[in-house]
Write a structure and sequence with these properties.
The chain folds into two domains: 153 residues, Ribosomal Protein S5, domain 2; 137 residues, 2-Layer Sandwich (Alpha-Beta Plaits), CATH 3.30.70.890. Helices cover 32% and strands 23% of the residues.
Length: 301
């Protein structure tokens, strides 16, 4: 079976100081995007174990951890080895929760192949052990997320067009949080109620303006400290007509909100030639071209 794994951006991300367990509480307004990976999961009884095929991603994959976590959650349920094939469309290590979305897609697929032993809340409980972005992706939709990602409350948002500016080189989430700890400027109020009101107001007005005015990301100062060239992308988006622009999650992708798809398409064409100071990953002396801008809209959940 094939599942779509949708990217997301944090329109608002408030982060509190780390708890005793090292995790940071948060309160965030997640917007699910039409941009998605395709995750195909097939039962393969002849295999020795689960296999993940994800071109372009080396090393451990959160999708494999998701399959293992699902089995641990349903010890009495027989589930053959799985072949997991991921067609990546979401840039890797981009702050768009692509890996988390893939993991959540595997949880959904494994649950279906096993006969549906777990409901959505139980799947989110399994997802919470995989990472703070995974629970919200169990049922891809716009949401207000709080706690350390385990509390997910679905909301509706007006249609939005976005332009994403990925970076040739990823940015470590752990490094961004470590820098945020060093800077030490954390939110003291993580009440999700204002985010519910913001989403409701934007939906009622059918307008991106309230969301653009409210964009906020407590991890942005840390991301910019580690990758100051991201400022170029933010400035380029604003110059291209974005209503507002900010870093997505822990970065390094930056995104801009636009009034409509026509404006976003026009901006992407203009930005395609902008040098966003991508770090070199080509041979020495030959700077890599920045990835092309990505135009997307909100996922019609």
């Amino acid at each position: 079976m094939t599942e779509r794994a949708h990217a997301k951006v944090n329109l608002v991300l408030r982060v509190g100081p780390s708890r005793a367990d090292g995790l940071h509480p948060l309160c965030s307004l997640f917007a699910a995007l039409a941009l998605h990976d395709e995750v195909t999961v097939t039962a393969d009884p002849s295999a020795d174990g689960d296999v993940v095929d994800c071109p372009g991603v080396d090393g451990d994959n959160l999708a494999a951890a998701a399959a293992a976590a699902f089995r641990a959650a349903v010890p009495g349920v027989e589930l053959p080895p799985l072949r997991i094939e991921i067609e990546k469309r979401i840039p890797v290590a981009a702050g768009l929760a692509g890996g988390s979305a893939d993991a959540a897609a595997v949880l959904r697929a494994a649950n279906t192949l096993a006969g549906g032993p777990l409901g959505p809340d139980e799947l989110r409980a399994v997802a919470a052990g995989l990472g703070s972005d995974v629970p919200s992706q169990v049922e891809p939709a716009h949401a207000v997320v709080s706690g350390v990602g385990e509390r997910v409350e679905r909301v509706e948002l007006p249609p939005l067009a976005l332009v994403l500016l990925p970076r040739a080189e990823g940015l470590s989430t752990a490094a961004v949080y470590a820098e945020a700890d060093r800077i030490g400027r954390f939110a003291t109020d993580l009440d999700p109620a204002p985010l519910h009101r913001l989403a409701a107001r934007a939906r009622a007005q059918a307008d991106a303006a309230p969301l653009a005015a409210a964009l906020a990301n407590d991890l942005q100062p840390a991301a910019l400290a580690l990758a100051p060239e991201l400022e170029d992308g933010l400035a380029a988006l604003r110059d291209a007509g974005a209503l507002a622009a900010q870093v997505s999650g822990s970065g390094p992708t930056v995104f801009g909100l636009f009034a409509d798809r026509v404006a976003a398409d026009s901006a992407a064409l203009a930005l395609a030639g902008v040098d966003r100071a991508a770090p070199p990953i080509a041979p020495p002396g030959e700077p890599a071209a920045a990835p092309a801008p990505i135009v997307t809209e909100l996922h019609a959940a």
